[in-house]
Batch of 2 targets.
Target 1
Amino acid sequence: ADEKVAIKTAEDVQPDGIRRSENFGLAQGKNLVLISLESTQNFVINKQINGEEITPFLNDLVKESFYFPNIYDQTAQGKTSDAEFMVDTGLYPLPSGSVNVRRPENHFESLPKVLKRTGDYKIFAFHGNDASFWNRDQMYQSLGYDHYFSKKDYKVTEENSVNYGIKDIPFLKQSLKKMNNLPEPFMAKLILMTNHFPFLLEDKDQFISPADTSVEVVNRYITTVNYQDKALEQFISSMKEKGLYENSIFVFYGDHYGISRKYEQGVHELLGQEQNPLNHLDLQKIPLIIHIPGQTGKEIKTVGGEIDIHATLLDLLGIPAEEHITLSRNLFTRNEEQPVVFRNGDIVTEKYASIDRKCYNKESGEVIETSACEKYLEIGRQELQLSDELIFGDLLRFVK
Ligand code: GP9
Ligand code: MN
């Protein structure tokens, strides 16, 4: 992009829907604990398999939280790192590759930086994989993280590992020990890992029986999601014991889908649904649970995307979103006319979905004239282009 067109103020490029909600500042000054739930799709919430809940802990938690059941996975090739990037910056992931790898030296505005500027926070990331995976070590510095606890900071043994590395239960236990010594207020991002394809888990860690669909990957997925839920339960109860719970706000979000198209038949079997484009779209929903101790629960059915987590958190933390440039929309105030935009150009709104250039009426399931989706597709094209220009031109370095 041409440097002459550099943006002067955040208002030049803000989408609408970032205004303050009645919840503005509800969690101001609290520790922010973000938990990335690996490959967790929303269909597991409140779902039973052979009479057993897959996520008993989260199911209880949603009753005392803001629960958003209509938030879509917007990640692309950067997977977990794309999800992190959206939450941190409110920008879209790139059309190919991961921003972490392609543009780690950019100037970014981010949740960590804003928290440090406005509230004297210290910012920490916790993850059991190698520090350089997804180039996190470098990217976290650009984003304003003060410290990254990675694999080398954990006691990792063959016994406490599976698949990508340290299992969620020992990971969260060891993380909590580190969190116990942090200066407050802090932001802590914890990235879970056990519920990762191909969803491997020893028998002794399976606290629920696998499902019995025709797809083994899906059958195992139930056990790893359930294991993750158990890890979260133990973590929150230890947070309470350590006195870290009351003064924190917790954000649990599924980073992206776990069951790809190839194995999706198994999920259709579990849910008793047919295989069609709208059901596939529906399965791209990830859970978003925002928990502030002591609050009354509220299910918020707003249709939104992962990118919107950013502005929603700013609102809760009492930081005016107008302060910096973001394409994120506050989920508490989000305008229904604004589409959720996917990296491949597809969009979804409350009423319509455009999938592979076909326009659907979501309620009837019918394909309708493409013109009904056109204005949403146009918004999508503009937003993706703007986001790409901001990133590829490193344009945020011009904003004071
Ligand atoms: C590995 C974890 C998983 O560090 O982030 O990566 P994914 O494949 O989901 O992006
Ligand atoms: Mn992931």
Note: The chain has a mean pLDDT of 95.
Target 2
Amino acid sequence: DKKAYYRKNPQTSRYRYINDQFLELNNPQVLTKFLAEGQFPVYLQPKLSFSDRKLAGAEALVRYIDKHQVLVAPSQFIPVLESSHLIYMLDFYVFHSVCNILKRWIDEGQEVIPISVNFSRYTLTQTNFLQNLKNLWKSYDISQNLIQIEITEGSESELSAEIVTILKEVKAEGFSISIDDFGVKYANLSLFTSMDFDVLKIDKSLVEDVAKNTKAQLLIQTIVELCKKLGIQLVAEGVETEEQFQLLDRLSCDLAQGYLFSKPLPLDEFTKRYLAAI
Ligand code: C2E
Ligand code: MG
Ligand code: MG
Ligand code: MG
């Protein structure tokens, strides 16, 4: 009964892979129930600084535990939630969870590191998005710079004028903006002139190329120079080998995220491994 098929996305006119198995998540009542029952655990993947290989941040990555207790990767169910535009419920749930994690660390006297949260562009364009974000945030007493909003630069299309406007408002509220998956298909350079952002994440496909292709090294070197001049932090994603790490270190990237150090971990494992209670 595992049907999968392609569906047209009305906003981009492109067909996307939709897994039929998760179509029940398109019902807001069902999704609300599953979220409340803890079926969407938030995992954390560490980001380490190239200079000392010490923990400098983390990314929140959601998973879904289905009715057979199988841990499902986001690539399987996020397209389903985007097609029904219910993705904002999940994104806000993750945002909420991250606020709780940070609050707990602060209360326990733990070392606190910034955590990034992925937001779908459908979430950003949701009515009252900024107001909802501010309301949620206000109920916590946490500094804004502990949260980064990650938005995919996009292999489908460049960031629209609408998204750019919303991201400017989010940034004006004090949140950091992180551009995800940079360099996947084509690097959209107008990104640098159309808005201010704080972090640029080099996609793992470009990171893979760096050890194989000297032109990829030149490209990254140029991006690094541009980012340094603009005060943008550079995160290399999908760092899997020591060779990649060494090359990216020499190219002066700031932070590394990838299996070389750790896969995304459940919260308690992350805490045990990376944060020492005081
Ligand atoms: P992303 O934001 O680009 O996250 C990085 C992905 O790369 C994660 O996949 C991570 O597990 C994987 N990764 C990290 N290091 C390595 C490595 O060394 N090698 C390889 N092969 N992979 C690595 P994951 O967790 O499956 O998430 C996939 C995508 O799903 C994310 O890509 C993000 O776009 C989306 N996503 C995850 N959580 C959320 C969420 O809460 N909301 C939204 N809207 N999207 C989410
Ligand atoms: Mg991300
Ligand atoms: Mg990415
Ligand atoms: Mg991605």
Note: The first helix runs from residue 28 to 36.
